[in-house]
Amino acid sequence: MFPTMIGTLVIAGIFGYLVEKFGLTHNGALPSIIICLGGALLFYFVRIMFGVSFGSPGLDAIISSIGALIIVPTHYRK
Predict the structure, then answer these.
(1) Considering the domain boundaries, does residue 78 fall inside one?
(2) Around 78, how many Cα atoms within 13 Å sit in the side-chain half-sphere?
(3) b/e map of 68-77 (b: 16 or more CB within 10 Å)?
(4) Residue 48 included in any domain
(5) Are 42 and 12 in contact, with CB atoms under 8 Å apart?
(6) pLDDT digits (tens, 9 = 90+) for 13-50
C-alpha cells in the first residue's frame, strides 16, 4: 500500500511538471505540481476507502491529476 501511494505521488508530480512545461496550463510549475499531488492523493484515499478505480494506480494518478488541474485553477479564476 505504501509503495503504491509513493508511486502515485511521483507520477502526479511528474505529470504536473510536464503539463506546465509544455504550456498547457499557466499556473506556474510549483502550483501545478501541488494541485496534481493534492488531486492524486485525494483520489488515492477514495480508491482505498470506496474501491473506486479507473484501472491501475498509475492511470488513476494521471486521471485525477487532470481532473484537479481542470477544477482547481478554473474555479478560482475570474
Answers:
(1) no
(2) 0
(3) bbeebeeeee
(4) yes
(5) no
(6) 999 999 999 988 888 889 899 999 999 999 999 999 99
| Residue 68 lies in domain | 2-73
Place of cell 480508491: 47
Using alpha carbons only, give the angle 51, 73, 2 rounded to the nearest 5 degrees.
Answer: 35
- Joined together, the cell numbers standing for residue 21 give 512545461
Pairwise CA distance, residues 71 & 73, whole Å: 6
| Amino acid identity for residue 64 in this structure | S
How many Cα atoms occupy the beta-carbon half-sphere of 37 within 13 Å? 12
Note the pLDDT of residue 49: 94
Amino acid in the structure at residue 24:
L
Percent residues over pLDDT 70 in the chain: 94
Q: Answer yes or no: are the C-beta atoms of 69 and 39 closer than 8 Å.
A: yes
Domain count, the chain: 1
